[in-house]
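pinging the channel bc i need a second pair of eyes. not urgent but kinda urgent?? the chain im working w is below, pasted from the shared doc
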Amino acid sequence: MDIESIREEYARLCNEAEQHNFNYYVLDEPTIEDSEYDALMRRIKQIEAEHPELVSESSPTQHVGGYALNTFQKVRHEVQMGSLQDVFDKQELYDFDRRVKAEDNGAVYCVEPKIDGLSVSLEYTDGKFVRGSTRGDGFVGEDITKNLMTIASIPRELPEALPLLEVRGEVYMPKAEFERLVKAQLENDEQPAKNPRNAAAGSLRQKDSRIAASRGLNIFVFNIQRIEGKQLGGHKESLDYLKSLGFNVIEGYRTYSDMQDVIARIEQIGQERREYAYDTDGAVVKVDSFALRERLGATAKVPRWAVAFKYPPEEKETKLIDIEINVGRTGALTPVAVFEPVWLAGTTVSRAVLHNQDIIDARDIRIGDIIAVRKAGDIIPEVVRSVSHAENSVPYKIPHVCPVCGGEADRDEDEAVIRCRNIDCPAQLLKNIEHFASRGAMNIDGLGEAVVKQLSDEGLISTVADLYALDIQSLEQLPHFGRKSADNLITSIERSKSNSPDRLLFALGIKGIGSRSAALLLQHFGSIEKLAEADREEISAIEGFGDILADSVYHALREPHMLALIERLKSYGVNTEYVSELSSDKLKGMTFVLTGTLPNMTRDEAKALIEKNGGKTSGSVSKKTTYVLAGEEAGSKLTKAQQLGVAVIDERQFLDMIEQ
């Protein structure tokens, strides 16, 4: 290959890697597998080794993959948060050992599991937690202090009041929490998180810290970035010390001087990792001595005193027997691969969700194929690809007929899913009732899947409104229902009538409306009735609501079946009026638009203050806007306010309006 061809290949591969870095670190939506990305990076490094004159500063080998998002305030790291050099075989470990031992033949290594999560910095001043941030590009990250404060294992105050301590850790989502999240997402016909790492990263980037708090996140602290008031000589000593301060430190760290012992420990971790409560994709090998680390130094991207050994993904080949279609509560037809059972990552698996027609087409998956299967994050089974087609096989197409009710099913223009359009479809009915009664919705204890099916089979319920017509006498006649369980269920149903109507709105299962967006709608409009009267423009003007969500709400609350259901729920005494938690009416009649970053509060906090004092917020500036509350880096909304002559105020002026 001539040098121009190599130059073109190198530029193309660098561009591909940068896009994949952006997808992975910033969007939390990787578009290729880790093993494919690793192969891409190995080829880039090979070209750079053979042609050093081609290496550019923009090469992905020259910097960490992340970027700082605009969602949160930027934080400049005093100590670079670099990544580690990945290695994939024993020879690379021996090469690393040779380089280290050339500097110090007595070098000792610390070996620990590699957590697959989101890397963060935690800063303490005088023993108190003051700030937490993401890695970003290694030099500049994002301030996510409030979301990190929702993680119970992060100490708020240390037993020793060190003048300064900055530690680095990995926030992760435990496997059990990831399974719970994916189950909930699938039940709600949402695109499930790809793996625990993406789920953890997405949770920490939520503007609403309550969402982060609901995700069951945890952290392992694995490094000291800066410290004052304490002298430490090595990594193992520092981990022992961090543990004594109350930090959750990575389990199973060991020290060895011989690389053969290091490799044996890596293999042991590889065998044990299926049993860990968290996802790990490798093991980290670090020089223990801090003094030796200083002498070894670092490249522009990685330290020379540590490497990360990556385990190869475990895949098994098996035969695809069938593709079943499940119907979700919103009518989504979800294809599920049914294959000959295989032992994979510690359990026997025989089914995997295929999600939609686009994925089936992209991987050309056909019934009768030999397929490659693995577990995403060692947890959720997935079909990676078709290895070979069966003779006379044909491409698979999801039928446009609901397998449960026989009704018509079609695909919306703006999404990949095919939906059953029959609102009375039995499959949707059962799942809708389960959702209606779930903890985040109407919170009716005792209405699990089995009870809902029993009530439906006995003809006692055919809509969610029928729940409010149940009585103790009818329930007592059912198998496995005694007086106490019947009384408990009726009591829970009665109690749900007084719920805030945002719970009811969420419970109605309108496409795209979660608990947070339901609360925003009811805070703005005051009742479900007034929301039903609103037009698209009024709904889309609420911050966080675009045209798609506004259309979803608008159409749902004009659908005859939905309107009849709401009227029936009202007739049973279910609350549809929102009771505001007003602390004053100082901002009554005023509409605020927020833009930019405020110095001392988040936008959500400012919005809450506005609403508690009788004001309203909007996502767009118009002549009806009373004030634009602007912070740093205010954008087009500020420009439009100036063009329209709308008053612009800062945070101090805003607080003066409330405090006067």
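so The mean pLDDT is 85. and DSSP finds 24 helices and 22 strands in the chain. — does that match what u expected or am i reading it wrong
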